[in-house]
Amino acid sequence: MCRNIKTLFNFDPPATADEIQAASLQFVRKLSGFNQPSKANEVAFQQAIQEVAAAAEKLLSTLVTNSPQRNRKVEIERARIRSIKRFGPREQ
Predict the structure, then answer these.
(1) What tens digit of pLDDT does each residue of 23-71 get?
(2) Quick one: how far is CA 29 from the chain centroid?
(3) Residue 26, Cβ neighbours under 10 Å: how many?
(4) How far apart are CA 32 and CA 26, in angstroms?
(5) Contact call for residues 53 and 46 (beta carbons, < 8 A)
(6) What is the mean pLDDT of residues 2-7?
(7) Cα(28)–Cα(55) distance, rounded to whole angstroms?
(8) Does this model's pTM top 0.85?
(9) Which of 9, 26, 28, 36 is 20 to 30 Å from 55 by CA-CA measure?
(10) Are 9 and 63 in contact, with CB atoms under 8 Å apart?
Protein backbone atom coordinates (compact mmCIF):
# COMPACT_ATOMS: atom_id res chain seq x y z
CA MET A 1 0.00 0.00 0.00
CA CYS A 2 1.04 3.60 -0.43
CA ARG A 3 3.36 4.73 2.34
CA ASN A 4 1.90 8.24 2.26
CA ILE A 5 -1.48 7.10 3.52
CA LYS A 6 -1.37 7.40 7.30
CA THR A 7 -3.65 5.95 9.95
CA LEU A 8 -6.33 8.50 10.78
CA PHE A 9 -8.40 6.65 13.39
CA ASN A 10 -8.22 7.08 17.16
CA PHE A 11 -6.14 10.24 17.35
CA ASP A 12 -6.46 13.25 19.58
CA PRO A 13 -7.28 15.61 17.93
CA PRO A 14 -9.33 13.68 15.35
CA ALA A 15 -8.46 13.61 11.68
CA THR A 16 -9.30 16.79 9.80
CA ALA A 17 -11.18 17.00 6.51
CA ASP A 18 -7.89 18.02 4.85
CA GLU A 19 -6.14 14.88 6.13
CA ILE A 20 -8.97 12.69 4.89
CA GLN A 21 -8.92 14.46 1.52
CA ALA A 22 -5.12 14.00 1.21
CA ALA A 23 -5.38 10.29 2.04
CA SER A 24 -8.20 9.92 -0.49
CA LEU A 25 -6.10 11.61 -3.18
CA GLN A 26 -3.18 9.26 -2.48
CA PHE A 27 -5.48 6.24 -2.57
CA VAL A 28 -7.01 7.23 -5.92
CA ARG A 29 -3.55 7.97 -7.34
CA LYS A 30 -2.37 4.54 -6.25
CA LEU A 31 -5.39 2.74 -7.71
CA SER A 32 -5.38 4.62 -10.99
CA GLY A 33 -1.64 4.72 -11.51
CA PHE A 34 -1.91 8.43 -12.36
CA ASN A 35 -0.20 11.17 -10.43
CA GLN A 36 -2.14 13.68 -12.51
CA PRO A 37 -5.01 12.47 -14.69
CA SER A 38 -5.42 13.51 -18.31
CA LYS A 39 -8.10 16.07 -19.12
CA ALA A 40 -10.32 13.21 -20.34
CA ASN A 41 -10.06 11.46 -16.94
CA GLU A 42 -10.02 14.50 -14.67
CA VAL A 43 -13.75 14.47 -13.83
CA ALA A 44 -13.72 10.75 -12.99
CA PHE A 45 -10.53 11.22 -10.94
CA GLN A 46 -11.99 14.10 -8.89
CA GLN A 47 -15.29 12.26 -8.39
CA ALA A 48 -13.42 9.20 -7.14
CA ILE A 49 -11.50 11.35 -4.64
CA GLN A 50 -14.76 12.82 -3.32
CA GLU A 51 -16.40 9.39 -3.01
CA VAL A 52 -13.38 7.86 -1.26
CA ALA A 53 -13.23 10.83 1.13
CA ALA A 54 -16.93 10.45 1.95
CA ALA A 55 -16.48 6.72 2.59
CA ALA A 56 -13.43 7.42 4.77
CA GLU A 57 -15.28 10.05 6.82
CA LYS A 58 -18.19 7.65 7.34
CA LEU A 59 -15.82 4.86 8.35
CA LEU A 60 -13.87 7.02 10.80
CA SER A 61 -17.07 8.34 12.39
CA THR A 62 -18.53 4.85 12.96
CA LEU A 63 -15.45 2.96 14.18
CA VAL A 64 -15.24 2.24 17.92
CA THR A 65 -12.36 1.15 20.12
CA ASN A 66 -11.61 0.51 23.77
CA SER A 67 -7.99 1.64 23.47
CA PRO A 68 -7.02 5.15 24.54
CA GLN A 69 -6.64 7.83 21.91
CA ARG A 70 -3.16 8.29 20.51
CA ASN A 71 -1.38 11.60 20.66
CA ARG A 72 -0.21 12.87 17.27
CA LYS A 73 2.97 14.46 18.62
CA VAL A 74 4.00 11.25 20.37
CA GLU A 75 3.36 9.19 17.24
CA ILE A 76 5.37 11.63 15.09
CA GLU A 77 8.29 11.37 17.50
CA ARG A 78 8.10 7.56 17.45
CA ALA A 79 8.15 7.61 13.64
CA ARG A 80 11.16 9.94 13.69
CA ILE A 81 13.04 7.59 16.02
CA ARG A 82 12.20 4.58 13.83
CA SER A 83 13.46 6.49 10.80
CA ILE A 84 16.75 7.33 12.50
CA LYS A 85 17.21 3.68 13.49
CA ARG A 86 16.46 2.55 9.95
CA PHE A 87 18.27 5.18 7.88
CA GLY A 88 20.60 6.91 10.35
CA PRO A 89 20.56 10.57 11.34
CA ARG A 90 19.91 13.15 8.64
CA GLU A 91 22.93 15.16 7.62
CA GLN A 92 22.38 18.85 7.22
Answers:
(1) 999 999 999 999 999 999 999 999 999 999 999 999 999 999 999 999 8
(2) 12
(3) 18
(4) 10
(5) no
(6) 70
(7) 13
(8) no
(9) 36
(10) yes
